[in-house]
Amino acid sequence: MHSIRRWLLLALLGLLAVAAALGGVLTYGSARAEVDQLLDEELRQVALSLRDHARLDTERIARSAERPEQRLLVQVDDPRRAQPYRSRDVAPLPPAAGEGFRELDHAGQAWRVYALPNEAQLIQVAQPTAQRRALALQITLRILAPLLLLLPVAAALLWWIVGRAVRPLDALGAELAQRQPTSLAPLALDGLPQEARPLVSALNDLLGRLQAAFEQQRGLTADAAHALRTPLTAVTLQAQLARRAGEGPTRDAALDRLEAGIKRASHLVAQLLALARLDPDAARDPACLLDLAQLAQDVAAEVRPLAEGAQLALEVTTPAAAPIRGHEAPLRMAFTNLLDNAIRYTPAGGRVSVRLEQEAAGYRLAVSDSGPGLPADERERVFDRFTRGRDAAAPGSGLGLAIVREVARLHGGRAWIEDGPGGRGLTVSLWLPARDAPPSA
To answer: Is 1.10.287 the CATH classification of the domain at 198-277?
Structure first.
């Protein structure tokens, strides 16, 4: 299981270790340069101090006690001696061409040599480079030792700092763990660090959408139970009447009423399912480019047989094209509901007109009829679920206009009712934003 605390601690400790290693390398390089400079000067000063004696008495120097542990090798080449004088028991250094420093591999190790010729002798002062590296390493370790000793303390402090940093997340997890499944209230943003606020804001948005979805589903379930009780009861009674009725017209009439009741119940269930699909997250589904004019023509062609059967004139007026970005199935369902309502509430010989026109950075679909109309005080209320006009004569479920308003909300539009042309009948309008207009929902 991935742990932010462990990852941060390991990452910080690794960074600290890399920084310490890099610091050690840089410190060693600096110490090596300082040691080389200092010891080079020491070699030079020793050679100069020997040269100041002019001609050295190598016989007397050779008789002095040797000290193998000394750091420097002093060699004096003297033409009076077969072998040059050497302060250490090391093979003679090769002669130098002139004054100056040089690097030399001699006697199985690397040497730093300074040569200084005088009138008759050649003075060479040498030192193994391994001694220089050892001295630089000792200096580096002395500098880094306190840091290495403080590493456990730093690890403990980092553990505490990381724990303090992730404490708000622990508290947030504990708060969520204590919540009841039905508690979808938003989480408080007070006291949260800036980095955790986007996460909590997104979580609050999710909780809000879940709350809206649950409320919609609860309301839909309650409304469905209430709405289905009456038609199912009627269907049961009609089935019982059909069973008791004998052969003949009485039985046929009872079966016709039973079939009509089943159709009404099926239509209600279909409307309920359609309404359930228009959940709050439907707007997050990808929209596609649609032509409202073509869609209105297609829906009008589908319902035209119904209008002709009801002896109604159906007129459709649309522009050549009306592009929007939307969801085709919900829009087709809303258009169908508007035309179906207009046809069912318009008496024979009447007229139903469909007009699609551009208006206010969008398109307005207006469906007008020559029916009895609707009182002004009921025009907003009929958009509620299972609500119909007081004087509604045609059968219905009271869900058609509720679906139209939900489809309008889904696309960032709106729906409303007003008087029909010339103050007669009713006009139901659905406005939708055009393709490039941002949704307002």
So the answer is: yes
